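yo, NAD(P)-binding protein is done. seq:
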Amino acid sequence: MAAVLRTVSIIGATGALGSRIASTLKAAGHTVTAVQRKDSSKSVPEGFKTVKVNYQNKEELVSAFTGQEVVISAAPFPQLDSEKIIIEACIAASVKRFMPSEYTTMLESPLAINLPLATEKVRVRQYLNSVLTNPTGLTTWTSINNGAFLDMALKFGVLGPNPMAKKAVFHDGGDKTIAVSTLSDIATAIAKILEQDSKFEAAANQPVYICSAAVTERRLTKMVAEVTGIDFGTPEEVSVKELIAASAEKLKQGDKSAMVSYYFQMMYGEGYKGGDFMEFNWNERLGLRFMSEQELKDTVAQILNN
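structure:
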């Protein structure tokens, strides 16, 4: 079966994830356009179309999206106020599929959706469901919900091992299994959804959960130690409950840096489904592989050596 080629616009195409999605889709033969703010000074890689718009101007967005089959948002920290205009422009421009910026967020747990870091993504999801429920409507949505970004987690030491500091931190013992995803696998998942009409339709108006591997902080620390030769010594033990209590106080005082701590609650907290990721997994349906132990180890080495 020949692959379907689509016209795709990407918001956030110069970011770490957005640029990976753009290059993967372009390599697959899709026509990719980077949609940027008018005041953006970030350069788009050669070979990509680009259009600059005022994100608050619906008419400009409609003009940019006209003729596009898919609009993908890879913008960090999406807000309903800004995403709502983009969604309305997609509907007005008859875009077939809008993909919101959910990614590392578990939104199928009634506990997880109440976390501060999920608030705006939940509002966007609710708005999508409210305006795109008409079965005769042309525009549909699909979110990609992946495990923690492995590329970033390894470099910044947030999933156990911290190679730069040469220390490790275990949350609630370090033995809870969670899903992790590489940026390249996230981009590949999107390409897989777009490549065939059957997959494209199957993913309409629902989240698609994917991951590259399932790991624990203890296992990942052992693997990084083997790859780098670093002796991490005795890991620091952190209670997620105590971490969240301290983070809540910081948020009350206006310290937004505490927001990231809630990812640990989403990943490791009881009832937050961080360890139940496979319940929703689409890897097999999309033809995505799970990394073997050796593949994961090779990927860890590649990430840390770049």
